[in-house]
């Protein structure tokens, strides 16, 4: 049944809020035939991940979704049957009042951040009655097991990824201005926050016995890389070589092209939430930098995902993954990046095999959009 949905997204910082909200909106519209309105308060940030977005338009249609500028004061809008606030962004007061005036009231869902921690399953779906209004909000937790809200995944993701793998790799690389990799070359994508471990990682790549090509989308790590190179600054299109390492700065690309970059690379450094999930679907090894939190709560998140991810790996390969992720996230007790990189390199083949198996296993968590539709229908 075609149901109306309003999704609200407040862009706090970075691209994760809009990245997740846009992927969900597209999935609900395309894979589930829902009528989706997406309210976004920063269309400029949205345009970075989806260049077709017009940052000036109050309302526009894109990929089957009605995209609305969320501005203050919020004008009159009839609430949809299902209302999703992404990551606890507070709904406009006038809209909330309009929801309370409906009979029956809309299904109201707060989409939470993704975590692999075990407590997520116990909290998924819990209701929270509004203190004054006749409305109940439900907490919807994405997660890595079947008893959570699952993961964002499109119905045709596996087919698109398989088609990509059968096309000549050189087509993709040419499209982003690069030659196809040499036989013994390692291609790495690097999407990261500022990171004290970065210089040591670049040192390790420059000292590698085989060529390492690092592709860095424009963003927060460029000043640190420029410092390491002794360059005045970096921008898209720049290329630098140090020892075995070739560094290319890429423009920030749209979400679908970024997916293809992840599918094409041998190793992906990712961060936050959405790119981490996309790297897992890519069937390629990944190193995750969790979004840093003041009380180091992100280390718990990191350990929880590591525990799941390495469970089916075992032995030296599991240790190499654990050590590398912990070192990259600044956890105490590591043996240094040079040793981590050497160990990771030695286990690369096993880690690469595991990446494919992990991606296949991940399907059991279920599709977040499908589970959200089912959840809303049951309410
Ligand atoms: O940008 P992020 O660091 O977002 C973070 C996290 O989501 C974090 O959990 C949240 O609390 C914080 O924001 C506020 O990382 P993330 O989640 O990977 O989002 C990046 C998005 O950008 C993702 O949808 C992929 C997309 N992207 C592109 O479209 N093109 C690109 O070139 C790159 C590098 C990324």
List keywords for this structure.
single chain; 379 residues; 2 domains; eight-stranded mixed sheet; six-stranded mixed sheet; 14 strands; binds 2'-deoxy-thymidine-beta-L-rhamnose
Describe this structure in words.
This protein has 379 residues and is of the alpha/beta class. The protein has two domains: 4-152 and 365-378; 157-290 and 297-364, Glycogen Phosphorylase B (Rossmann fold), CATH 3.40.50.2000. The protein has helices spanning 16-32, 43-49, 93-100, 119-123, 157-166, 169-175, 198-206, 222-229, 255-264, 274-281, 297-310, 315-328, 337-346, 348-362, 368-378, and strands at 4-9, 35-40, 59-62, 65-69, 82-86, 107-111, 127-129, 136-140, 186-190, 212-217, 239-242, 245-250, 267-271, 286-289. The protein has an eight-stranded mixed sheet with strand order 3-4-2-1-5-6-8-7, covered by helices on one side. The protein has a six-stranded mixed sheet with strand order 11-12-10-9-13-14. Helix 1 crosses helix 15, helix 11 runs antiparallel to helix 12 (315-328) and helix 12 (315-328) runs antiparallel to helix 13. The longest helix has 17 residues, at 16-32. The radius of gyration is 21 Å and the shape is globular. The protein starts with a strand and ends with a helix. The model has no long low-confidence stretch (mean pLDDT 97). The structure holds 2'-deoxy-thymidine-beta-L-rhamnose.
